[in-house]
Amino acid sequence: MLLKYKYLLLFAWVLAEQAGVPLPSAPLLLTAGALSAERKMNLPLSLVAGVIASIIADSAWFFAGRRYGTRVMRLINRMSMHPPTYVRRTRWLFDRRGRLFLIFAKFLPGVSLIAPPVAGQYGMGYGLFLLLDGIGSALWVSLLLVAGRYFGDVIKRDARLLNLAGRFAGVLILVAVSGLLLERLHRRRVVLKALAASRLDPIELKRRLDAGEPMFIVDLRHPLELLPDPFVLPGAMHFSPEELAAHQAEIPHDREVVLYCTCPSEATAARTAMMLHSLGIANVRPLRGGFDEWKRLGYPLQPIPAVIPFAPAAQPAG
């Protein structure tokens, strides 16, 4: 197929993967690099096709993230085979590493798809995004093509390896892709299973709060998610998972700890609950449906001051 359609197939395959379709393009890029050793494909043209496809898909996600924000994150979580906690991981990396993180995002499984809409959500300028994403895409595509070219040169020197590769390449690619998808499905299932076992229903939480039962409620939403909804549950405190771990000594052990977020299936809350369990805090439960379900049921919310994350400090007049 690659010999027949060449750069059109390469472009379409990379575009589909970067758009969220679970079709790993690494085997195709490696094959294109190997074919370049036989002069059956041109290495620079393969590089251009792969980079342009990657930039087009990433740009679409960038503008979607800028316009629709959290709704796009939820859509990606439903499409992706990676655990939903990768959205939180990507934001954490963005906070810690800054915009240059985009250059290396392509090399991090599960993060490469989420990084462009997160960049748009952060308000990054498109020109800077295009530059950094283009560098990252070029590095990613180049590495795979060059690796394929290296193995192509090895095969060229030994015809027996070419015959062996021709017999088993299809089976090996099928096994590799199937194993990758199954491994991602397994990790996602483990996270969701751990979550389902310990969730607290919003109706039960509302009843216990009305009865005056003391609860330690933690809002785990990212600051960007607070912009459209500057409210928390009654009495809730806002912490990131990292901040909560750093202040574990302040978490009361004489009451139930309730965590909530806006991730699909409460993934961030579940992961944080498991982290607190490992620190010796056992009485922790994620809230089923998170903030969105509590709000949908019409239960009371407590306003908090609007905070614009990462805004530059105001300069003194004059």
What features would you describe in this structure?
There is one protein chain. The protein is mainly α. The protein folds into two domains: 2-196, no CATH class; 202-303, Rhodanese-like domain (Oxidized Rhodanese, domain 1, 3-Layer(aba) Sandwich). 61% of the residues lie in helices and 6% in strands. It is built from 15 helices and six strands. Helix 2 (7-19) packs parallel to helix 4 and helix 4 (43-68) runs antiparallel to helix 9 (126-157). The N and C termini lie far apart (66 Å). The model is unreliable at 308-318 (pLDDT under 50).
What is the C-alpha radius of gyration, as a whole number of Å? 24 Å
How does the major sheet shape up?
Answer: 4 strands, parallel
- Calculate the mean pLDDT score and round it: 80
Put simply, the count of helices is 15
Ends apart, CA distance between termini: 66 Å
User: In which order are the strands of the major sheet placed?
Assistant: 3-1-4-5
Count structural domains: 2
**Helix-strand pattern:** HHHHHHHHHHHEHEEHEHEHE
Strand content: 5-15%
Structural class: mainly alpha
Shape: elongated
Unreliable stretches (pLDDT < 50, length at least 5) are 308-318
Secondary structure tally: strands: 6
Helix content: 55-70%
What is the strand and helix layout of this fold?
Blueprint: H1 2-5, H2 7-19, H3 26-36, H4 43-68, H5 70-79, H6 86-97, H7 101-104, H8 115-121, H9 126-157, H10 159-196, H11 202-210, E1 215-219, H12 223-226, E2 231-232, E3 237-238, H13 241-246, E4 256-260, H14 267-278, E5 284-286, H15 290-296, E6 302-303
Parallel strand pairs: 1-3, 1-4, 4-5
Antiparallel strand pairs: 2-6
